[in-house]
Amino acid sequence: MPCYVKKMLVLAGTLLVINAPAEAQSRKKAKGTPAPVASVKTDQTDSLALRKIFDEALLRGESYDNLRYLTGTIGPRLSGSPQAQQAVDWGKATMEKAGFDRVYLQEVMVPHWVRGSKERGEIIGNKDKGVRVPVCALGGSVSTGGKLKAGVIEVHSLEEVKNLPEAAVKGKFIFYNRPFNDALIEPGAAYGGAVDQRANGAIEAAKRGAVGALVRSMTSARDDNPHTGTMRYAEGVAKVPGAALSTNAADRLSQLLKANPDLQFELEMECITLSDEKSYNVVGEIKGSKFPQEIITVGGHLDSWDLAQGAHDDGTGCVQSIEALRLLKAAGFKPERTVRAVLFMNEENGTRGGNEYARLAAQNQETHLAAIESDGGGFTPRGFTVEGDPATVAKLARFAPLLRPYHAADVTAGHSGTDIEPLQAAVHPKALIGYKCDSQRYFDIHHTAADTFDKVNRRELELGGASMASLIYLLSKYGL
């Protein structure tokens, strides 16, 4: 093979020559594997069609105003809460107003965890001198049952806890202080390398007799915003409280522990898990004109954590999914395949909405061509990540030249999304696709009180919805 692989595509009458370094095709999947671009004869009107979609989004887009209402009027939408039900009602009404062919709800039972009063954390040193630090309960945690005061053991991995003498751990807090690996270019990879301590830290701590788990927040930002997120408990293992410390608080606790290994930490949380609640996925669809039995799903998760408005996580994904269908209608396009927008419930602390959607798809013997998920924030578009065989990834990459004018041409193998993953086993779609945007700022606000509407840029948001609509247009026309 030559050093450069030349790819050509006729775009609106212009011959484009694309040079892709061959070495780039051998990168590890974890970093995103650029796919070889297969030849495809796209219609010369496709570039004009995409331009029409982007014009509609940038000049008359509705995502931003929809997000303003969802985040400002309804606000936090943790599953089982009254606000989550308000969001369901909003989603259904918004899809109906957009004039989709069919709008309906899928019933699903979801967990109902309540944070309770604001958490309190304090480092207590010599002579009972205390330093208050920002903390928050991890999602699903049990309460402390009043004030819980104990010594602290700092670790950097789950394995380290397993190898500690039981006498050193028993009756103390385990403090997981492994930071993000800031050498990684993709923050998502750093998140994946640190999140096990949040998810399973309380389990391993309890196995060794600890009274609770304190976890460094999942971010590279240095600030006073603790990051919540789901945690797990295991059958037959005592449930101990789990709390996140802000990165500044974690740094301070670590520093003080070095000076005084005998200091204590006092934690107070009043969270509780109530009985499951009835909730819904919200579904709207436009029926395909030629192949109505083939479905393209696009979605985001309607629930959010309770600390803020859930703007980037994942209000943006919800409004972009609705907007993708609206843009096709507004631009005058009738998709050849059926296109379905889904607002999934309970991604954050259970994924029951995604599982129920997949179960019903299998029960109804549906044929899913592809599924797209937007759950990485509403920042500037970059492209799409694809889960599928190499030939399928290559077929999707053939659309890159059409998406390149809109900076959404980075089509690589990689993770798609949590809510669409169950479809793989249920109905075997040809591709699971994740909308990829500039992620460098995402984990600064992810799962924090800072995830608010003012952090979303109108143009970035509308460009994302148009990018998704454009890919749907191409998938609907050419298939896979």
Q: What's the short version?
A:
With 480 residues, the chain is an alpha/beta fold.
List the keywords.
480 residues, Glucose Oxidase, domain 1, 27% strand, single chain, Aminopeptidase, 19 strands, disordered N terminus, nine-stranded mixed β-sheet, elongated, 2 domains, eight-stranded mixed β-sheet, alpha/beta
> What is the CA-atom radius of gyration, in angstroms?
24 Å
Helical amount: 25-40%
CATH third-tier fold name of the largest domain: Aminopeptidase
Sheet with most strands: strand arrangement: 3-18-17-19-16-14-15-13-4
Count, helices: 15
- Architecture of the largest domain, CATH level 2? 3-Layer(aba) Sandwich
* Tertiary shape: elongated
For this structure, what is the CATH class of the largest domain? Alpha Beta
Sheet of most strands:
9 strands, mixed
Computed structural class: alpha/beta
Describe the structure.
- Keywords: Carboxypeptidase, Endoplasmic reticulum, Glycoprotein, Golgi apparatus, Hydrolase, Lysosome, Metal-binding, Metalloprotease, Protease, Secreted, Signal, Zinc, Zymogen.
- Pfam families: Peptidase_M28.
- The strands form three sheets. Strands 3-18-17-19-16-14-15-13-4 form a nine-stranded mixed sheet, sandwiched between helices. Strands 6-5-12-8-9-10-11-7 form an eight-stranded mixed sheet.
- The protein has two domains: about 5-110 and about 275-480, 3-Layer(aba) Sandwich (Aminopeptidase), CATH 3.40.630; about 115-270, Glucose Oxidase, domain 1 (3-Layer(bba) Sandwich).
- By secondary structure, it is α/β, with parallel strands linked by helices.
- Helix 1 (about 45-60) runs antiparallel to helix 15 (about 460-480) and helix 9 (about 310-330) crosses helix 15 (about 460-480).
- It has helices at about 45-60, 65-75, 80-100, 160-165, 165-170, 185-195, 195-205, 245-260, 310-330, 350-365, 390-395, 400-405, 420-425, 440-445, 460-480; strands at about 5-10, 15-20, 35, 100-115, 120-125, 130-135, 135, 145-155, 175, 210-215, 240-245, 265-270, 270-285, 290-300, 335-345, 365-375, 380-385, 410-415, 430-435.
- The model is unreliable at about 1-40 (pLDDT under 50).
- It is elongated and about 75 Å long.
- A hairpin with a 2-residue loop joins strand 1 and strand 2.
